[in-house]
Design brief:
The protein has helices at residues 5-30, 42-45, 51-84, 91-101, 106-113, 117-139. The protein is mainly α and 141 residues long. It has one domain. It is elongated and about 75 Å long.
């Protein structure tokens, strides 16, 4: 998958919550928690409508499918960054990228590193360019 510069900025900004959401969705999708009500005696032999129950199950399958699709998309974006992390060789850039992936804001990073917000933004731009340059190379392979 190839991403443009603005999409990469978004991935870096959203990485932290996407990772947490992947974990949550994985837990949710591995649950099989549908419990039907067993019927006994004469009630079990009587005919009863299945429309509401089958519709509920169908809706749940559709909802889980959408959750699964979201999880796959989030994982694709998270993996995009993780697979290109090695491209960042400058120590300050590594720290900034790590802070971004931990969910820190530009202001928090600038305070943490004792750099101006402008400098942190410049270094983030360099990080995005490096992640993107590798992206372009992979697109031609």
């Amino acid at each position: 998958m190839t991403y443009n510069k603005f999409q990469i900025y978004g991935i870096l900004k959203d990485y932290f919550w996407m990772l947490r959401e992947i974990q949550r969705l994985d837990r949710e999708l591995t649950k099989t928690d549908f419990r039907g009500t067993a019927q006994y005696g004469i009630e079990a032999s009587l005919p009863h409508g299945q429309g509401i129950v089958s519709q509920a199950i169908e809706n749940e399958v559709i909802r889980r499918s959408k959750k699964s699709d979201n999880m796959v998309e989030y994982a694709r974006k998270v993996n995009f960054v993780n697979e290109r992390f090695y491209k960042i060789t400058d120590e300050k850039e590594k720290v900034i990228l790590d802070c971004l992936l931990d969910g820190m804001s530009i202001i928090a990073i600038s305070k943490h590193l004792g750099l101006s917000r402008r400098r942190v933004n410049e270094l983030r731009d360099d990080i995005v360019d490096k992640l993107m340059s590798n992206n372009a190379q992979n697109a031609h392979m």
